[in-house]
Specification:
homodimer, 198 residues, mainly alpha, Arc Repressor Mutant, subunit A, Tetracycline Repressor, domain 2, 2 domains, 11 helices, DNA-binding
Chain lengths: 198, 198
DNA sequence: GAAGAAAGTGCCACTCAGTGGCATTTGCGT
DNA sequence: ACGCAAATGCCACTGAGTGGCACTTTCTTC
């Protein structure tokens, strides 16, 4: 089971519904009016949840806005954990990324596109996004059992940077099916990039 | 002249002094009590500057805390601009970094060490630091005249990531003269990192 | 060197994110 | 049905950052 079975408990189901409602409404509201221009209270009113409750679900305003991104990386770590993979590690990471991408359901894609656009013009979001990438990198190193290996650390940094570059190239169009191509192109350019001459 | 000559105007001199006082006192205060645990007002009281004035000098509390880091990157961009360099670009970047490092005066080193330590245990600072790296990267691409070249973008991402890894390795000791060695080691490990096998 | 322009500063009141405490409700098990 | 624990809501608070306006300091010009 990739996703945990829907929990029987009513209490749990309500929690999940609230979480989703917050994330989805956040994407919609922020997408319309912009992240910085939308006070958190507007989101709380829309979802009819008190300030205090919100902060029991999400750590910050940025946190809820980045839900789609965090979902992707979470799946990425799952994929990496379940199939160790062999051969060049950067191919392993690229493929894990592509697999994770393929696993996201149709509902996810527009939310992700919205999030990426938001991130592009809100430094606060960009900062939190970079911070989250750093956490994922640390988690990946731990997963591979060599958290202190310099070369491994560099490789992971490179791969995440490559991913971000791919997303950046994809950003202007945000065409639904084209992200994997951008990812493949970017990863294919790593070697040449590293050996660029002035 | 690498640094602009001391401005004749009294007005300008006072501004510079206030800026420095804020940066230095910030490093001292934050270094003692921690970044998150030190309210901005404590800094303002210490320097005897009003809240309003502070925000005319620095954009945020994080901004003033990261002064030492920003100084380094600023010198890095200067170095890069004045000597285009030839050969493998990653060597050019590494050497520009080392040159910038060598140009910093003795006063800078302890402030930088403090800043790095602060950054390591304050997510807010880490986020702003990563954000600043991203700005420097964009500026570097612009400087080289190819802001949209994917391979160049990747190379710059890789180099900055490598720098950050080097600083991270240096962090536990923070031994004054050892940073350049860590930088050289990290850059030397790029190739092997990219070709790691699972 | 005095007068006025311009830049810099301080104070006050405001918005908004995030937190702690405590009472209240709501779903859960017996 | 009852009691327990979890979840929620409400209130008041801190702390960062901003806008407006009055006041002081420096620069300029005559």
């Amino acid at each position: 089971m990739t996703h945990p079975a829907p929990p029987a408990s009513l209490r749990e189901r309500k929690k999940v519904r609230t979480r989703q409602a917050l994330a989805e409404t956040a994407a919609a509201l922020f997408g319309e009016r912009g992240f910085d221009a939308t006070p958190l209270d507007d989101l709380l009113d829309a979802v009819e949840v008190s300030r205090r409750t919100f902060f029991r679900y999400y750590r910050s305003k940025e946190d809820v806005a980045l839900t789609a991104v965090k979902e992707l990386w979470s799946v990425f770590l799952e994929v990496l954990a379940e199939e160790p993979g062999t051969g060049p590690l950067r191919d392993v990471f690229r493929d894990a990324l592509l697999t994770a991408l393929a696993r996201m359901d149709g509902d996810w894609h527009p939310r992700f596109a919205t999030t990426v656009r938001l991130t592009a013009d809100s430094p606060a979001l960009e900062g939190h996004s970079l911070l989250h990438c750093a956490e994922v990198q640390a988690e990946t190193r731990r997963l591979l059992g060599r958290p202190d290996d310099l070369e491994l650390r560099l490789l992971i940094e490179f791969c995440v940077a490559t991913w971000r570059s791919a997303v950046d190239d994809w950003l202007p169009t945000c065409a639904p099916g084209e992200l994997p191509d951008h990812v493949r192109r970017a990863f294919a350019a790593m070697e040449a990039g590293l050996h660029l001459e002035a």
